[in-house]
User: Fold this.
Amino acid sequence: MKIIILLIITSAFQSLFGVGVLLFGTPVLLLLGYPFIESLLILLPVSISINILQTSKDYKYVDYKFYKNILVLTIPFIILLLYFVAKININVSFVMGFFLILIALKDYSNIIKKHLNKLLSYNKLFFVLTGIIHGITNLGGSLLTAKIFNADMNKLEKRSTVAISYLTFAVFQIITILSLNYRPNLNNLYYIIIGVSTYLIVNKL
Assistant:
């Protein structure tokens, strides 16, 4: 029941802002005691399904120059770091907690905010670092969203570019996890229905 409530809330948020299922769902599931890889197997199919709906609707607004950098500079590091974390079975809770605290403090610390804004200005470094953080914690989307929302794009371009980037993240994450012989639970199909239904209802309203 806790997972269902979480998926309803995060899917509603994702329908409005383009992110939510992974960004908020991952730390919450870890707090509830779910292992990192199991959390990904629950959340990634939901995120992929919603992102497909978002991307199929607004694909013509995607900033493909930005997306090319995702493919070339970010995805390889997501695959490499996720493979490493899953293979060695590292506890990522500490890293994730530190990263969340850092992001939360950026609005209250000029030093953190200054360095984060500086990071956003270095394109190649930003995309590589996003891949590293997302591979280890599944939270690289917070950096991605900050970068896109600071870019010179209109609302539709921002939302569609976030959606296709998240979709690509999740697809390669699923492929990496399945290559290590992890298998999703059939209940995950039920979670997909809940997430997609919530997304469609909120999007319609």
